[in-house]
């Protein structure tokens, strides 16, 4: 099992460019999450998908959109990147939307200039 | 609003010492508390999960305790090794089942 995979690992964008971060899990989990991690701060939830076909906003959703493509895949899109979106992005999955253990991908380091 | 704090932000100790990392939270209405390890350039690895009804969990040289009433958790690492060097994060699952995170403690074990 690969667990949770994310692509790309690194990305540099110019202000105003768009991109999609990809995430996939092979654990047959129902719930998936996108977080961002900034220096000196804890992870903050951007969006989550409690089950296939549903998505909900987290703490910091502005500037992002998500798509739960199927049970395995959950993508995060930046339509018009801003320097404030420079961060490390983590995808995670869990069995369900309750207080279950979450499993994390290796992260995508995004720099917006 | 739930807030999670980890003190200290960084800690450096000689190899072989026992050490304690601290995590505090402001709202005792949590479902569970998790401790994670983060290595540079890698994802997060779950170390221990303590349900709100539990007082502690153990895994090898790691022991995590939870005191909900005081809003505190500690991660005890016995006989520290250089391989334990990493950033340790705690997170609580709030009433909406969402994880609220501390900023982490960066641990360096000196050989």
What report would you give on this structure?
The complex is a heterodimer of chains A (113) and B (111). Chain A is mostly beta strands and 113 residues long. Chain A has strands at 4-7, 10-13, 19-25, 31-37, 44-49, 56-57, 64-68, 74-78, 87-94, 103-104, 108-112. Helices cover 0% and strands 49% of the residues of chain A. In chain A, the strands form 2 sheets. In chain A, strands 2, 4, 5, 6, 9, 10 and 11 form a 7-stranded mixed sheet that branches. Chain B is mainly β and 111 residues long. In chain B, strands 2, 4, 5, 9, 10 and 11 form a 6-stranded mixed sheet that branches. The A-B interface holds A 4, 40-45, 48, 58-59, 90, 92, 97-99, 101-107 and B 4, 9, 31-32, 34, 36, 41-46, 49, 89, 91, 93, 97-104.
Tally of individual helices of chain A: 0
- Summarize the biggest pleated sheet of chain A: 7 strands, mixed
Mean pLDDT of chain A, nearest integer? 94
| SSE string of chain A | EEEEEEEEEEE
The residue ranges of chain A in which pLDDT falls below 50 over 5 or more consecutive positions are none
Strand proportion of chain A: over 45%
Based on CA inertia axes, which overall geometry of chain B fits?
A: globular
Structural class of chain B: mainly beta
Counted by DSSP, the helix tally of chain B is 0
DSSP strand count of chain A: 11
Share of helical residues of chain A: under 10%
User: What is the CA-based Rg of chain B, rounded?
Assistant: 13 Å
Question: What proportion strand of chain B?
Answer: over 45%
Sequence of secondary-structure elements of chain B: EEEEEEEEEEE
User: In angstroms, what is the radius of gyration of chain A?
Assistant: 13 Å
**What structural category arises from helix and sheet content of chain A?**
mainly beta
Helix content of chain B: under 10%
């Amino acid at each position: 099992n690969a667990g949770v995979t994310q692509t790309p690992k690194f990305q540099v964008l110019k202000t105003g460019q768009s991109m999609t971060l990809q995430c996939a899990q092979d654990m047959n989990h129902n719930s998936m999450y996108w977080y961002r991690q900034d220096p000196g701060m804890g992870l903050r939830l951007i969006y989550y998908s409690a089950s296939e076909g549903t998505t909900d906003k987290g703490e910091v959703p502005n500037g992002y959109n998500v798509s739960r493509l199927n049970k395995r895949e959950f993508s995060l899109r930046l339509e018009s990147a801003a320097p404030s979106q420079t961060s490390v992005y983590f995808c995670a999955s869990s069995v369900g939307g309750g207080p279950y253990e979450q499993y994390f991908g290796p992260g995508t380091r995004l720099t917006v200039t | 609003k739930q807030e999670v704090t980890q003190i200290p932000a960084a800690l450096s100790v000689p190899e072989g010492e026992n050490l304690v990392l601290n995590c505090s939270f402001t709202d005792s209405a949590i479902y569970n508390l998790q401790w994670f390890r983060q290595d540079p350039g890698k994802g997060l690895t779950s170390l221990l999960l303590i349900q709100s009804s539990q007082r502690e969990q153990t895994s090898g040289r790691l022991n995590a305790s939870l005191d909900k009433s005081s809003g505190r958790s500690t991660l005890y690492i016995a006989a520290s090794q250089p391989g334990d060097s990493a950033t340790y994060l705690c997170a609580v699952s709030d009433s909406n089942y969402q994880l609220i995170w501390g900023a982490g403690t960066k641990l360096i074990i000196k050989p």
